[in-house]
Design a protein that fits this description.
Chain lengths: 334, 311
Amino acid sequence: MTMPSVNGEQPALVSVRNLSVAFTGGARPVHAVNGVDFDLAPGEVLGVIGESGSGKSVTLRALLRILPPRRTRIGGSLRIAGKDVLALQGRALEDYRGGVASMIFQEPMLAFDPVFSIGDQIAESVMRHRRVGKAQAKQRALEMLELVQIPNAKRRLDAYPHEMSGGMRQRAMIALALACAPKLLLADEPTTALDATVQIQILLLLRELQRELGMAVIFITHDVGVACEVADRVAVMYAGRLVESGSVAAVMQDPKHPYTSGLLSSIVHGQTRDQRIEAIPGAPPDLADLPAGCSFAPRCRFAVDACRAEVPAARELAGARLVRCVLADEAEWD
Amino acid sequence: MSMPSPATSELDLRGAAPAPVFDPATALVAQATRGYWRTVLARILRDKVTVACALLLLAIVLLAVFAPLLALADPFKGSILRRLLPIGSEGFLLGTDELGRDMLTRLIYGGRLSLVMGITPVINALLIGAFLGVVGGFMGGKINTLIMRTIDVFYAFPSVLLAVAISGALGAGIFNAMVALTVVFIPPVARVAESVTTQVMSLDFVEAARASGASSFTIIRVHILGNVLGPVFIYATSLISVSMILASGLSFLGLGTKPPEPEWGLMLNTLRTAIYLNPGVAALPGAMIFMVSICFNMMSDGLRAAMDVTQ
């Protein structure tokens, strides 16, 4: 399924075709990602929404090729900034990671090495990609810390990760990810580990930096509100497939896939105390043993025989939207 | 989404790396960065116990190194007429041993062999064991199994017995005793290095380093070694005292140093017959072993505290 980007006339920065990832370490292979296709234009922000285990993070790690190679089988094709990412090896792969695409991790405490100062860790990456000396790399690290609005940045260069608060660490993580000016930023739930007030600050900072620097961002979250806040387009993921995608406004106001609709109705907003929150019944499928047809069918109230027969093809709707549901154009279910 | 605006920021975010010119601001930043080892040193200096132990060890080492220059008595020359003089005798500050040799001189000279036999096997075991452990932990899988299971074989024997068996098989002598002790210390060091490496490998920052383009070699050199060497080094420091005691034990059994060479363990052995006649003098070599072991242990505790940046 191809998602035409909003500004479709530009060459896509990211082009993912039929991406699949299976983990082969266990007794049965686990199919975490099952045929994901999307395009992303330079400077575009894509929000990927989905519950835990839907393959969001695995997709992101596949884009950066940081999944353990011995236990992972990646299929399909991945072109990012003109490079065939799946064919990259050795030095070229290292240049790509951090140089073309870089990543912000969910837990900033764990993503920094505790025995080196923040400044050293940012400088390490700069020295690697820019081939500059230590002093210049440190200077660059200082500029980055100032760019992410860390107060008293000069002193913070020497701070160790444990000496900073969660929000500061996440800012430093963003500084590290952006230090080599990547074209694509992958953000893996960057605000999940932070408390609510800090979350908003980090989101605003990310959006500001994205506009200023013009990079494309793929933003993973399970928080629909966060996705609305930062993304131009959203894609909803379920059991390793993108089930729906489109502009934020369109998907939020008029979800076409029953899973999207269920996800939106399970958000708490202003219900009174005794009002039931509508949750999606059941649990996500076992990724080692996926159902034959639509993977959401066992939980779907509107499932018909056609749903269980085969995986529904992606249907293109008006306004550059795509839905993988047999009932999408009939809209029988709402 | 609108197209990115042209980079207005002065940070030159997408431009090529600037030419390396000297920049006072850059130099200032580099200068403002306090080195890690300077921090560690500052922390050690604040720890009185560690400083005291380090000074005591330094004194013993310096005495041992410069023993011939101190113009003391001859450590090998005895007199049957002044055997086993008590501590504080005239001309013999710490008395004499069972052959009438000056105890102070022999204790100072004895430090040379004892310290070498304490430290050398540990350094060798640190290098070999840390290498095996880091390689095993980083490679994982079959290579790790091969290395670690081989090392487990050595755990089947108590360390003293293993040291005695190896040095007995190789034959008596200082070199063979050190080889035996090295073999004894490789398994625990490798075990510590392997477990820390495995732990570090599973942490997010290794993945983050990979995500920012670090090669496997860089990850081992910077992140694995940076996190593994601290604990392994501290563990090895605590082995020095064990090594000294084992070395003394080997000498005691006649597998290490040979008489009349002065060595604390051997001196303890030869003086044990005099324990009822002159207990003070007989206990002196033991007291030296005890003091040096305690100092090494206390120092390794101090180092552990000082080297841990998260404290």
